[in-house]
Here is the input.
Amino acid sequence: MSDRLHAPLRHPNRRGFLALGAGALLNGPLFASDEIVLGDIAARRRLLFGASIAEEALTNPAYGALYARQARIVTTDWALKFPILRPSAEIWNFGPADRLLAFARQNRLLFRGHTLIWNEGSPDWLKALSARETARVFDEHIERVAARYAGRVHSWDVVNEPFWHDHGAPGGFRRGPWFDALGPAYVERAFRRAAAVDRSATLVLNEAHAEHDDPVGRAIRKSLLRLVDTLLDAGVSLQAVGLQSHLRPGLPRNGAAFVDFLHRLAARKLDIYLTELDVDDGPFPDPIAERDAKVAQTYVDYLREVLAVPAIRMIVLWQLSDRYSWYRDPAIMRAMGRTRPPRPLPFDADLRPKAAVAALAAALEHHPI
Ligand code: XIL
Here is the structure.
């Protein structure tokens, strides 16, 4: 457990000033003196707290100030995904990630890279390659991207979402260009390539859905433990598992079974990061106050359960404000059959704190130091 995880406490307003700049501060939102600063509350419990971040944090100064004040670590939402970095075989588009890294460094925020290898969202040019060409692109991508940010990335989601049993592949692996070209061995290959070019970053295997006790979640938990053992037995440099924690109140949960799973990961000397925390408020009633209260309670119930496990070292929301949640994507709303603007996060579309802010603060206090 590196002590980089516990950056020194800083005065939140000072960081906010850095983000806003003097001019904006004169007529921008002033910070309430009794404001809850989640990053500082988490730090007092030896936890890193943050959120995923994208261009809006740079184009909307008030949103950038919210990150500077509330977060201690940020994860790239889009900027370091393959299709953004590699829109074509000839183009390497590092601009968005470089700008977010500069913002993070200016505001003394730690920086997470998401994600070097993911079998979802691949551009057509990659899908058209032969297996041999795909393997070459795979190695080149990891080596060039990880080397570019070496020493400036707290941790990498080296492989994202390795499993999707409905694809029917052996071992329940998620199908896609990398798996189809390299087989299950792509996971070990990715970690070995990343470790070879960045010896300072914590290397993370990131997965969705393990939090739920439906057949998918149970299968993923089992497969994830098996994959972790395969990697560790092979001597792969794997230090943490990321559990996305996109909480779906409409799906079954079994706290005891999930906490047992967390202890099994911890027994393998792995840190555990909650990497994409938010709450799907779709199943909750329309009235805003009632809906926000149920979202807050969902955060509290989950965190009080999992924070009893000391191996939990990080809590990262998937954005900070409802306005920029992935659940607001029209394609995702259609896919989920939603028409109501989602309210999954602790800050509303106007960046005002909701009931979940105080709830998260209370839940964070429960983490054993
Ligand atoms: C999401 C982005 O936030 C959205 O903007 C995009 O439309 C879809 O992908 N699990 C992951 C993230 O690991 O990379 C996904 O991010 C959300 C699910």
